[in-house]
């Protein structure tokens, strides 16, 4: 395989939280620790505009067209239109610090996971909320699930093609699987629960996106079937794997599914900023790329355009790096 070469870098004052591609691939969003969201040209990683917020932010998500949602630690989701400028055009009210966002395949429903809020439940109990908005219908949530998790909801992910299928993951060690009912009943929508570990990232993969992956805060990694929630493979602590010539990764960054080739890749890093990309099979994983010299600190996000043979990475050193192979 052709190795990656570092072709350009942009230095930012604030560290980069993640790298997020638009559905069309025309833009990349790089949310920053300051609360700003950099809009990047994917071919040069230069910043074309900056979205401004009044709160620290957690995650961003693209809606339909040029719409962007920005999850804030103030409990609100800012709504932006990249065609009209840098200021928010609307706000969705969440009530608790937003940790994760995902919109469904048709772009009509936005889901969010929140931090555990003290005494915020109907009976004064601590609650973490799974919120859902009909983005066509106003600022108030269409529904909220408050019994599904007992701690911070760190990840929510809709199925890439089926509007009603949803995952949520939490620091309570649970991954919840939902098939949302028309009335968005919490009891009726939740149909499977996986007890694994404190969840960092989750997502779908497979020819029909029938599998799910799970990354945890203790750097373990596992694969499950979505419909039955059956364990396919638990790779355990990935830091204990010795990858030929690379050594071991020290933390996990993200997982990338290449639908064209039907391959799942796990991306990890070292404290010095080195990036390793592993090809994941259903029973093993192997190192396929090592990216060196692009960062000097922890890498927080990557976007890999397999067809375009480019990769963009961003991290705690404030650097956005563009690689080509």
UniProtKB/TrEMBL annotation:
WD repeats lie at residues 146-180, 292-325. One of its GO terms (cellular component) is nucleus. It comes from the Eukaryota. Pfam families: WD40. The keyword Amino-acid biosynthesis does not apply. Gene3D superfamilies: YVTN repeat-like/Quinoprotein amine dehydrogenase. InterPro entries: WD40/YVTN_repeat-like_dom_sf (IPR015943), WD40_repeat_dom_sf (IPR036322), WD40_rpt (IPR001680), WDR89 (IPR039328). Keywords: Repeat, WD repeat. This is WD40 repeat-like protein. It comes from Rhizoclosmatium globosum.
């Amino acid at each position: 395989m052709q190795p990656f070469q570092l072709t350009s870098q942009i230095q930012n004052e604030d560290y980069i939280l993640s790298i997020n591609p638009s559905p069309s691939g025309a833009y990349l969003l790089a949310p920053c620790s300051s609360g700003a969201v950099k809009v990047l040209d994917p071919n040069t990683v230069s910043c074309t505009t900056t979205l401004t917020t009044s709160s620290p932010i957690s995650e961003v998500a693209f809606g339909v067209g040029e719409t962007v949602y920005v999850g804030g630690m103030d409990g609100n989701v800012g709504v932006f239109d990249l065609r009209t400028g840098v200021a928010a055009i609307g706000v969705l009210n969440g009530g608790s610090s937003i940790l994760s966002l995902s919109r469904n395949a048709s772009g009509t429903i936005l889901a969010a996971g929140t931090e555990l809020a003290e005494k915020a439940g109907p009976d004064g109990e601590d609650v973490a909320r799974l919120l859902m908005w009909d983005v066509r219908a106003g600022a108030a949530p269409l529904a909220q699930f408050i019994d599904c998790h007992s701690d911070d909801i760190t990840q929510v992910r809709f199925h890439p093609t089926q509007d009603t299928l949803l995952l949520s993951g939490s620091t309570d060690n649970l991954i919840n699987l939902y098939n949302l009912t028309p009335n968005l009943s919490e009891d009726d929508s939740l149909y499977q629960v996986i007890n694994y570990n404190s969840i960092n990232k989750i997502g779908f993969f497979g020819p029909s996106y029938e599998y799910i992956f799970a990354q945890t805060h203790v750097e373990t990694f596992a694969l499950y079937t979505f419909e039955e929630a059956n364990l396919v493979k638990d790779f355990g602590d990935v830091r204990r794997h010795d990858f030929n010539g690379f050594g071991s990764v020290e933390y996990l960054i993200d997982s990338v599914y290449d639908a064209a080739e039907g391959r799942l890749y796990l991306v990890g890093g070292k404290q010095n900023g080195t990036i390793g990309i592993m090809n994941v099979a259903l029973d093993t994983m192997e190192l396929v790329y090592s990216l060196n010299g692009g960062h000097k600190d922890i890498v927080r996000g990557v976007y890999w355009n397999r067809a375009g043979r480019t990769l963009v990475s961003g991290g705690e050193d404030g650097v956005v790096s563009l690689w080509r192979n």
